[in-house]
Each structure stands twice: as C-alpha cells, then as structure tokens.
Write a structure and sequence with these properties.
104 residues; elongated; 4 strands; Translation Initiation Factor IF3; alpha+beta; four-stranded mixed β-sheet
C-alpha cells in the first residue's frame, strides 16, 4: 500500500512542468541590431516553454519620453504574437516599464 502511494507521487512529479521566467532588459534608445538580437533570444526562450519578462529602463530625461518605451513594447508584442501571448500588459514600476509574455 505504501509502495503504491510512493509510485503515484513519483508519477505526479514527472508530469509537473517547471516554467522559468527569463528577463530581457532594454532601454528606449536600443538600436536595431541589439533589439533584433534580444527578440531572437526571447523567441528561443518562448519556444522552450519559458515566460519572458521585458523590462525597459528609463534614466533622467528619458522619463519625459515614455512613449518610446510604449512603442517598443508594442513592437515586441507585434513580433511575438504568433508564438506568445501577453500575460501582463506593459505597466510602470517606478522608473521602468515591465511586461510579461508567455507561450501560447
């Protein structure tokens, strides 16, 4: 009886899937090549089944141009919409804008 309970617990542990959260940090002035490289890595993480947290950090006067960060987040959503969906929409946490996307 005890042995069967142990087997059932082991089977449940095998069925569980661990999902990790990967973070990708950007700035409002991130250039095209760097942006493409980070998006390529994000797509790789998503296809593995991980969630991806995008963070756009603002410094100094960049806080006056928050629209650049919103545009960047919208561009990320458009480029990953075929393989991922938005778990938490872009929102401000202090001086950074945060968004989490997860695999479909």
């Amino acid at each position: 009886m005890i042995f069967k309970k142990r087997l059932i617990k082991q089977k449940k542990k095998k069925k569980q899937k661990t999902v990790s959260l990967k973070e990708i940090k950007l700035r409002p002035g991130t250039e095209a090549h760097d942006y493409n490289f980070k998006i390529k890595n994000a797509k790789k993480f998503i296809t593995k089944g991980d969630k991806v947290k995008f963070t756009v950090k603002f410094k100094g006067r960049e806080m006056q141009h928050t629209q650049l960060g919103k545009d960047l987040m919208n561009k990320i959503i458009d480029e990953t919409k075929d393989i991922a969906k938005v778990e938490s929409k872009p929102k401000f946490e202090g001086r950074q804008m945060v968004m989490i996307i997860q695999p479909i």
